[in-house]
């Protein structure tokens, strides 16, 4: 996996300077624009095209907070593809109540109950975003061992948010 932070010459951060990310993107877009290498060998053209592609992917990831969060957790070895992560029992119990309410709404739509359910989910979602903001700022300030504690907590919130995304999708299908 390409290290997008190293590619841009930036430290790994959940909250990089957005203006600096954009500046690096434009700088490398000019440097690796395939049109500037039209008279070069096929090998050089292929290399530049690959670097241009990496630049575009790096910008897409580093410019989007959710993609960046996922990427850092992956790069740090905290997220493993296909992992069967266990969410905390308390969270799952709360979500079971939400899912039951959703099933009831699928059987009998009630706009008031649906609106209340959306509001409840929005509150949980905001709490997760707030906790992620605190933990990612803490990670960026820490070094070494302290970062691994933050990463474990961020990973848990990442999975909670993914679970909530499925619920939000189900709510959309009901409304």
Automatic annotation (TrEMBL):
<dbReference type="InterPro" id="IPR036386">
    <property type="entry name" value="HscB_C_sf"/>
</dbReference>
<dbReference type="GO" id="GO:0051087">
    <property type="term" value="F:protein-folding chaperone binding"/>
</dbReference>
<comment type="function">
    <text>Co-chaperone involved in the maturation of iron-sulfur cluster-containing proteins. Seems to help targeting proteins to be folded toward HscA.</text>
</comment>
<dbReference type="GO" id="GO:0001671">
    <property type="term" value="F:ATPase activator activity"/>
</dbReference>
<protein>
    <submittedName>
        <fullName>Fe-S protein assembly co-chaperone HscB</fullName>
    </submittedName>
</protein>
<dbReference type="GO" id="GO:0044571">
    <property type="term" value="P:[2Fe-2S] cluster assembly"/>
</dbReference>
<dbReference type="InterPro" id="IPR004640">
    <property type="entry name" value="HscB"/>
</dbReference>
<dbReference type="InterPro" id="IPR036869">
    <property type="entry name" value="J_dom_sf"/>
</dbReference>
<dbReference type="InterPro" id="IPR001623">
    <property type="entry name" value="DnaJ_domain"/>
</dbReference>
<comment type="similarity">
    <text>Belongs to the HscB family.</text>
</comment>
<dbReference type="GO" id="GO:0051259">
    <property type="term" value="P:protein complex oligomerization"/>
</dbReference>
<feature type="domain" description="J">
    <location>
        <begin position="3"/>
        <end position="75"/>
    </location>
</feature>
<dbReference type="Pfam" id="PF07743">
    <property type="entry name" value="HSCB_C"/>
</dbReference>
<dbReference type="Pfam" id="PF00226">
    <property type="entry name" value="DnaJ"/>
</dbReference>
<dbReference type="InterPro" id="IPR009073">
    <property type="entry name" value="HscB_oligo_C"/>
</dbReference>
<keyword id="KW-0143">Chaperone</keyword>
